[in-house]
Amino acid sequence: MTISMAFLVAFAVVVGLVVGSFLNVVIHRVPSGGSVVRPRSHCPNCGTGIRPRDEIPVLSWLLLRGRCRDCGTGISVRYPLVELLTAVVFVGLAGKFGASATLPAYLYLGAVSVALALIDLDTRRLPDAITLPSYPVGVVLLAIASLGSDSWSPLWRGLLGLVAMFAFYFVLRVAYPQGMGFGDVKLAGVLGLYTGFLGWGAWAVALFGGFLFGGIVSIGLVVAGRAGRKSKVPYGPFMVLGALVAIFAGQPLAQAYLDVTVR
Fold first, then answer.
1. Which of 97, 94, 82 is nearest to 18 (CA)?
2. Are 119 and 128 in contact (CB under 8 A)?
3. Lowest CB count within 10 Å: 49, 135, 206, 261, which one?
4. Residue 42: strand, helix, or coil
5. Chain segment 204-252, per-residue pLDDT in tens
6. Is 73 helix (H, G, I), strand (E, B) or coil?
7. For the chain, percent of residues with pLDDT exceeding 90
8. Are the C-beta atoms of 114 and 20 separated by less than 8 Å?
9. Is-cis flag, bond preceding 177, omega within 30?
10. In 3-state terms, what secondary structure has residue 185?
11. Phi, psi (rounded to 5 degrees) for 74
């Protein structure tokens, strides 16, 4: 690992932990329509504001042994896990794109994906407050990434991927309303933009990967007796997982599939 790559990874870890700490607030407040700015973070039991020294990602939770400094109420282990998950995603994206103009666009997607996946698990919703702004933000960030390239083709392909994946999910939603919510349709457009930017192979892996992961988990839940055939399972996390696989390995996976099927 070169010094520059080591610095980039360290930077991704720090930024990922900080962003993950903020995402904990987003995940908790956005579904209920609350502000992510006010009031400042506080203990839900005693109402005491969290001191700055107790807001260090992961480390503060460990030093406090997972409890409020003032009243001793337990603090869920989910908080440091979200911070660690975000850091892992950021490190992976930093390794994938390096110190390029493309990296900020995908770091934004990584943060949004973590938040939406966990909110969907909690509430079976994908809030418009997160999904809809991701359209213009994603287009702007990917356009900035395209400024330093020799071609605008990836951006145009991404925009076409946005429309195509949105349309695909929209048709599914209309044909079988019980199968997915319209929040999934809106998320599909965002994922189509980012994966289409990388190539049609990545776009296809993201599209079918979500169904594959969702199907495997749903069958597993039914076999384990944790769900019935008509049970509703949040689909957003599987869409996000499919998109992440597509970003990291979509093009090689698509090429490997083609190599096997054309023989």
1. 82
2. no
3. 261
4. strand
5. 999 999 989 888 888 887 777 666 666 677 889 999 999 999 999 988 8
6. coil
7. 59
8. yes
9. no
10. helix
11. -65, 140
Structure pTM? 0.91
Give the pLDDT score at 231. Answer: 66
User: In this model, does residue 94 exceed pLDDT 70?
Assistant: yes
The CA-atom distances, in angstroms, between 63 and each of 10, 53, 60, 69 are 22, 10, 5, 10
Q: How many helices (H) and strands (E) does the chain have?
A: 10, 0
Whether the CA torsion 184, 230, 207, 91 is positive or negative: it is positive
> CA dihedral in degrees (218, 221, 223, 225; nearest 10)?
-140
Nearest to 78 by CA among 119, 129, 111, 49: 119
Smallest CA-to-CA distance from 136 within 162, 173, 116 is with 162
Residue 75, SS3 per DSSP: coil
Q: How many CB atoms lie within 10 A of CB 5?
A: 13
pLDDT at 234: 87
Amino acid type, 96? K
The Cα 25–Cα 102 span in angstroms is 27
For residue 259, the model assigns a pLDDT of: 63
What are the angstrom distances between the C-alpha of 202 and each of 5, 143, 191, 254, 255? 25, 19, 10, 7, 10
Tell me 64's DSSP state.
T
Mean pLDDT (whole number) for 153-164: 96
